[in-house]
Amino acid sequence: MNITILYGTETGNAEMLAEDIAGELEAEHEVSVANLSDFDPAGFDQGRFYLMVCSTYGDGELPGSAQPFAKAMEASDAKLAGVHFAVFGLGDSEYDETFNGGSKRLAELMLTHGAVQIGERVIHDASGSDLAEDLAFPWASEMVSLASERLEEAV
Amino acid sequence: MSRSVAIIGTGPAGCYLAQALLKAEPELAVDLIDRLPVPYGLVRYGVAPDHQGTKAVTRQFERLFERQGARFFGNVTVDAPLLAVLREAYDAVVLAAGLSSDRRLGIPGEDLDGVIRAGELTRALYDHPDAARLPKLGRRVVLMGNGNVAIDLLRLLAKTPEELAGSDLGPEASEWLARSPVEEITIVGRSPAAAARFDAVMVKELAKLSGVTVNVVDPGTSDEPEGMKKIDALASLAATQGGPKRIAFRFSLTPVAVEGERGHVAAVRFRDGAGAERIVPCDTFLTAIGFEAGADALRRDRLLGEAFDPEAGILAQGLYAAGWFRRGPRGTIPENRTDAQGLAARILADFGNMPQAGSKAGRAVFAGRPAIVTYAGWQCIDAAECAAAQPNRCRRKIASRAEMLQLAVRIEEPQA
Ligand SMILES: Cc1cc2nc3c(=O)[nH]c(=O)nc-3n(C[C@H](O)[C@H](O)[C@H](O)COP(=O)(O)OP(=O)(O)OC[C@H]3O[C@@H](n4cnc5c(N)ncnc54)[C@H](O)[C@@H]3O)c2cc1C
Ligand SMILES: Cc1cc2nc3c(=O)[nH]c(=O)nc-3n(C[C@H](O)[C@H](O)[C@H](O)COP(=O)(O)O)c2cc1C
User: Fold this and answer.
1) What value does the mean pLDDT take over residues B384-406?
2) Is B53's CB within 8 Å of A11's CB?
3) For residue B98, which atom of ligand 1 is closest to its CA?
4) pLDDT score of B370 more than 60
5) Domain extents for chain B?
6) Which residues from chain B sit within 8 angstroms of residue A13, using beta carbons?
7) Which one of A50, A94, B39, B43 is most buried, counting C-beta atoms within 10 A?
């Protein structure tokens, strides 16, 4: 499968995780990694599966590197029907009211444009005891197998 | 031969710079030097002990040394002569040494007993090897400053022992806080609330404190959304009531003098926005008003004064500056990252325009230098600290440099 991992980050944790996930998937798939700040929403491709890894900053907001993407999505009426994505969030439950607001917002942006979400959003808690990769690797492989069924059906 | 870079300082500025350099050019020889036997600067010694999530950026920095080939040279203080040696030995040298001296207010009475500065206090609380002893606190504290550091101190002074569970606050500091006589904290800002430096989330976090009663005096209003965020955050504290410690936020007060009695702080005299005098009685005056270079082995003022392009962090041929050392004591961890990415691109572009100047000595200049802590040495310290963690703590920092060195220093044969 062709997979693009898109990350939104403020202090780099999501970027490192995105690269680690790519490392896990590379043996069996064609994988590329991009910062959301360098990604144009017009570039979504129905033939690829998008794994999105995004943190939360400020007060439940998207991190800096996802902000330009969010602005572009808000301004665009692009139809993303047939684009499949899954979201993994990084956050910190110390910020209880806004815990993982960023990844939630990112999923909403995709859904309002008609993209198809695969699986549930899985989130990592920086104040919890799990390492992000211990949650993200199983998440990624599960999402990829779910998506491969869907993408095959679509062809 | 690959180019070599020496980065002085292993805080966020130095580490993010190494990361950006090695991401673009994995072959570079990148060496990170710190005067402490342990890496990560203010991530270890500034970021609050109850914000472990923020400290998790160190997992990225560990990669530098564990997988990306960067080397750590701890327990090496760089002064002007050593800087000259490093400039000879490396293709580029970057000063990312931060700023650690507390700024002073410059008002009478600042040296009375009972005046405490935030940098000094945080170093003592967070077990920095060069810290003085924990000071004596009184019952009534005036906390001057409205940045995130001031809010950190307010929160720590206000927390109950239970609220510090999961942190890495050491046993002495924990005991000191648990037994503190503090009954009242007045936090004072020079600016109106809308222009305060703190982040709104930092203030909102205070709403969770169980042991306080908060009073926000005249927060005013604002036309700016950023200003309103801060005012709204303060308003969210309205329901934080009923606890025994009283916290008051006051704004638009300029400190004029610290008043003393028998050599000890008794009150702080302020002028308000209308020019009227306001006296706030207290027995402890804690200032959190920023940092500067202080008595500085690197002669920062001169270096920046003579810089080619201080904005871009270019001091001279092959000499650069990053982080707080370049920008001054402003900006959080993410700003150092953005900054470092820009500087890395600049350094690599300069390499591209420079002829390859034969092979330089690089890290060989450290050969034979005694008591250098390597990354493996730091891992020994780290493991010992994690293993010694007490109940409800994630780590017990070793505060003594001698003890650190005993764990970490391997006598290595000078390399050929
Ligand atoms: C109390 C406090 C709390 C903070 N809390 C937060 C927070 O919660 N979140 C956040 O985002 N930001 C926070 N900040 C801001 C953040 O710490 C800074 O933005 C950041 O650390 C600046 O990075 P730096 O690398 O320039 O400096 P530093 O982190 O200070 O690193 C400088 C390093 O250089 C070393 N060094 C100094 N002189 C020499 C020398 N002569 N030779 C060799 N080595 C030397 C030092 O030992 C140190 O390791 C806080 C700051 C303070 C002071
Ligand atoms: C200033 C600040 C604000 C934050 N705000 C939130 C928040 O509102 N909600 C949340 O779930 N996490 C929040 N976080 C936690 C981050 O999302 C978490 O540390 C994450 O691992 C950062 O990943 P990144 O490095 O990719 O940006 C915040 C962290 C900081 C330092």
Assistant:
1) 97
2) no
3) 27
4) yes
5) 4-100+293-408, 103-290
6) 56-57, 59-60
7) B39
Q: Domains in chain A, start-ordered, CATH in brackets?
A: 2-154 (3.40.50.360)
The complex's ipTM works out to 0.94
B312-325 pLDDT per residue, tens: 999 999 999 999 99
Low pLDDT (below 70) residues in chain A: 154-155
- Would you call B228 exposed, middle or buried from its count of C-beta atoms within 10 A (0-12, 13-18, 19+)? middle
Pure H helices in B144-247: 148-158, 171-178, 200-204, 225-235
Does A64 sit within 8 Å of B53, measured CB to CB? Answer: no
Lining ligand 1 with CB less than 6 A are B 8-14, 33-36, 41-42, 46-48, 51, 54, 77-78, 96-98, 122, 148-149, 152, 297-298, 323-325, 331-333, 336
What pLDDT is stored for residue A154 in this prediction? 64
Ligand nearest the Cα of residue A14 is: 2
Q: Which residues of A touch B53 (CB under 8 A)?
A: 92, 94, 126-127
B328 alpha carbon – ligand 1 mean position (Å): 11
Helices (H), B39-117: 41-45, 52-55, 58-66, 80-89
Beta bridge partners of B5: B30, B92
pLDDT of B149 higher than 60: yes
For residue B269, the distance in angstroms to the closest alpha carbon of chain A comes to 35
CB pair distance less than 8 Å for B204 and A59:
yes
Contact between B40 and B61 (Cβ < 8 Å):
yes
Asked: is B4-100+293-408 a CATH 2.60.40.10 domain? The reply is no
Ligand 1 atom with the smallest distance to the CA of B79 is: 41
Asked if the domains B4-100+293-408 and B103-290 are classified in one and the same CATH topology, the answer is no
Q: What is the three-class DSSP state of A87?
A: strand
